[in-house]
């Protein structure tokens, strides 16, 4: 997951190691644990494999002797490949991986965003069915264990609801863009559920596509811990 996140950030702008660590910590600490000792070895590995390259010249010198890394075309292909992968992993890791992918949805084609949302929705629905089937296990739980189980189910229901509304919004935008394919459209950033257009990018505008009730709030903002 760290390689996926690092390559995604380097697509936006060249970064040196320390700045990359700060970006990871600030933007993705809810998804992954940023191990400072792993970032520099990762950059070296990616450079050896041709995914990133150290910049030279005035731009690099302006960074106090630190290596400034930029992504290569091979690195972009690697990032896109990893965005489409669904490795077999724990439920917790799978959710973290998906949220990292959502962070970079603006860099994906609409069809791929929809595909990733549909895959996550299916995973959530299957997990809910699996948990519902464990009735005998629930009957053996004490009051506190049952409260924890019910809370987990409520979080899962929230995510399913969020995904359904997110997916509906993405499909509506894709349909509108398809119907206007012969008309030159201004560059626009996708509007994520729970995120206002000015948060996604300061230099782009949101497409004029909203449901009557607007986008749903983000999953995290709806959960009172």
What would you note in describing this structure?
This protein has helices at residues 2-12, 17-28, 36-48, 58-61, 73-83, 91-103, 110-133, 135-139, 143-179, 197-200; strands at residues 15-16, 52-54, 68-71. With 225 residues, the chain is mainly α. The protein has two domains: 2-83, Winged helix-like DNA-binding domain superfamily/Winged helix DNA-binding domain (Arc Repressor Mutant, subunit A, Orthogonal Bundle), CATH 1.10.10.10; 109-222, no CATH class. A three-stranded antiparallel beta sheet has the order 1-3-2. Helix 1 (2-12) crosses helix 2 (17-28), helix 1 crosses helix 5 and helix 7 packs antiparallel against helix 9 (143-179). It is globular and about 65 Å long. The two termini are 26 Å apart.
Largest sheet: 3 strands, antiparallel
Radius of gyration, in angstroms, nearest whole number: 20 Å
Task: Give the overall pLDDT as a whole number.
Answer: 81
Counting helices, strands and paired strands, the structural category is: mainly alpha
Tally of extended strands?
A: 3
List the main descriptive attributes of the protein structure presented here.
single chain, 225 residues, mainly alpha, Arc Repressor Mutant, subunit A, 2 domains, 3-stranded antiparallel beta sheet, 10 helices, 3 strands, disordered C terminus
Task: Compose a concise summary of this entry.
The chain has 225 residues and is mainly alpha-helical.
Helices and strands, with pairings:
Elements: H1 2-12, E1 15-16, H2 17-28, H3 36-48, E2 52-54, H4 58-61, E3 68-71, H5 73-83, H6 91-103, H7 110-133, H8 135-139, H9 143-179, H10 197-200
Antiparallel strand pairs: 1-3, 2-3
